[in-house]
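Quarterly update, task 2.4: 2'-deoxyuridine-bound model.
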Amino acid sequence: MNKEQLINDSKQARENAYVPYSKFPVGAALLAADGTVYKGCNIENAAYPMTNCAERTAIFKAVSEGVKNFSALAVVADTEGPVSPCGACRQVMAEFFPADLPVYLTNMAGEVQETTVRALLPGAFTMEDLNHAGRK
Ligand SMILES: O=c1ccn([C@H]2C[C@H](O)[C@@H](CO)O2)c(=O)[nH]1
Ligand SMILES: [Zn+2]
């Protein structure tokens, strides 16, 4: 599974986006350490805030199958430049991804920005902050 394949999987996932409100489909493909790819799309709701982004759909699919070791994430949308994940997704990425896990932000024009959780959410609030407060 190389970068191009993972990006292609994110485009396939995007085809299942449920976006009657925004009409802005997003796809994500999360590569697990065992080689399995978890695909996610955005899923909207008439009650707008219930919407789940593509990135979180993919992460939650994997975690709900007991998978928590990941190797890379690709995200795609029809944006002018590479798609920019929302704050909620960045926080969820910080929970499950090592700080240097490769994140490929892409668009339908084929632009690819390779980044990391560390760069996407510097200073993320994490488990370590809770542990420091003596909750271990
Ligand atoms: O990185 C992103 C950015 C936006 N969205 C979704 C949320 C909503 O359904 C639509 C418009 O914000 O795009 C994602 O899934 N991922
Ligand atoms: Zn999001």
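Highlight for this quarter: Residues 53, 55-56, 85-86, 88-89 surround zinc ion (ligand 2) (CB under 6 Å).
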